[in-house]
Amino acid sequence: MKKILRNVMAALLVLPLLVSVFGVATVNADDAETVDVTVNKRIWTDESAPSEILNTGAQMDFGGEALNGVTFTVYDVTDAYYDLHATTPNTKTVIDTIASDLATYAGEDNVVASKVTEGAGQATFRLRELQFGEDPAVFREAAYLFVETATPANVSVTKKAAPFVLVMPLYEMNPNGTFTPTKLPEVHVYPKNETVTDTKEVVSFDGLDLITEDGTVYRNVEIGQKIPFKLTLNIPEDIAEVESYSVTDTPTLGLAYADGTLQVEGLQAGDYTFTTNDNGGFTIELSLESETVKALAGKQLVITYQMALTKEALPDTPYENGAAVTIGGNDPQETIKPKDPENPENPVKFITGGKRFIKTDAHTELGLGEAEFVVKNGNQFAVFTNNEAGEYAFIEWSDEAVDNSKVVSAENTGAFNIIGLKYGTYTLSEVGTPNGYVPIADLEFDVVYNGYNAENGIRNVPNTPKGLLPSTGGNGIYAFLAVGALLMIGSYIWFKKSKVQAEV
């Protein structure tokens, strides 16, 4: 009798996925079968998701990438389904009503289970196909509401899966979209998520000279030169539900945020907090209580700012800059770095140069201290500051020499190092010469790639001593004249003797 009843009911329930009809029969509670419903969470990146995919209920190649860490909660909405059907005969309308009103139909009192996708992005729920009404002898098809209640922190989900309703039992589908009388032994559903890649880019490459060395592309800059960046962040659709959302910009040590250059489009200071970090970077944390921030759900947030090499930057050392989003206090997402249009497979690398000098005595080759110089680029004068290593770090160019334009050789060694210049040719002019030495003429020097620490990279700047002549008018002049007279007399005597001997 039970077999016959089941066969009759199966014949009556040949219906599309998510649609059911009412069946009434007298059965025992043990006859209510269960079915495994597996949620296969898939995600598509950068608007690559297809607009429509036929979900057959069977296991299928649905595309996209498996996404773990997504929480799905299943709610029993059987009562609501039947209550709505009493006044609304259209099943699709009933289903759409339930799925669009989570406040009403997704409550704590009707939660069946919550599970997190894992492995291949799957979460499996074992659900009863039939439920019993007030009369324990009368069964009815069960209805369940599936809601994506939490997204993973390792990806910014900009479009979550829409809530959906399954009405049991479900039947196999033909390739043409019609249904067979064969009930699915297990059910597979493929809710879609979408994400858009966050980007970081250099806004303009003007003034960032392109050089290629050893097959690597660099952008040659001076210390202090402003580099404009733009971050485009894709805010999660559930931004109002996450615990926190922040982005941290982390440069290579020696590259740092330029004060006062931050712009966060569309937000005011109270919508976020901004904190500079010891490594030269910064962190921006959104205020999730802000209605303006909540309104960004599923949209983009654009942040612009500038960075610059600091006086501690090392010559001929590549510097990079990246940013990473952190959601809910978890591990940061993958770091994003700006790409160079001349080499889009690799991040932009910034590099600066320098030159080492030593001031010496031209005769003894010993170091001379207290010699003063200025560095010129055409008609402009370099302005410097000292870093912790005692090097002269470039700051800016000036139309005239100022106090900080002077570079002075070290007292004991005669050494002085200049850093932070672009690769190119410059002029070194001596403006203060050690006592007793002849000033040198202007000399040109080259700042070249990998030249700062090269073995032959130190430029010798020799000064010639003026000699030992005494001052005019002093007592020493008489001694000088006496010595001169003796030399002349001696030469005369030697000449006379030589002549006599020659005549003999």
Give the end-to-end Cα distance, rounded to a whole number of Å.
163 Å
The overall pLDDT, averaged over residues, is 87
Structural class: mainly beta
Count of β-strands: 39
Strand content: 35-45%
As a whole number of angstroms, the C-alpha radius of gyration is: 41 Å
Total number of helical segments?
Answer: 6
Helix percent band: 10-25%
Low confidence ranges: 1-31, 468-474, 499-504
Q: What global shape is seen?
A: rod-shaped
Q: Sheet with the most strands?
A: 10 strands, mixed
List the helices and strands and how they pair.
Blueprint: H1 2-12, E1 34-40, E2 42-45, E3 65-66, E4 71-76, H2 78-85, H3 91-100, H4 102-105, E5 111-116, E6 122-128, E7 130-132, E8 139-141, E9 143-150, E10 157-159, E11 164-167, E12 171-173, E13 179-183, E14 186-189, E15 192-195, E16 199-202, E17 209-213, E18 216-220, E19 227-234, E20 245-251, E21 255-257, E22 263-264, E23 272-276, E24 282-286, H5 291-294, E25 300-309, E26 321-327, E27 339-340, E28 343-347, E29 350-351, E30 353-361, E31 372-377, E32 380-386, E33 392-398, E34 407-408, E35 415-421, E36 424-432, E37 437-438, E38 443-447, E39 458-465, H6 476-503
Parallel strand pairs: 1-14, 2-15, 18-29, 30-39, 33-35
Antiparallel strand pairs: 1-6, 2-3, 4-5, 4-9, 7-8, 9-11, 10-15, 12-13, 16-19, 17-18, 19-25, 20-24, 20-26, 21-25, 22-25, 23-24, 27-28, 30-35, 31-32, 31-34, 31-36, 32-33, 36-38, 37-39
Helix pairs in contact: 2-3
Description:
- Strands 30, 31, 32, 33, 34, 35, 36, 37, 38 and 39 form a ten-stranded mixed beta sheet that branches.
- The chain has six helices and 39 strands.
- It starts with a helix and ends with a helix.
- Helix 2 crosses helix 3.
- With 504 residues, the protein is mainly beta.
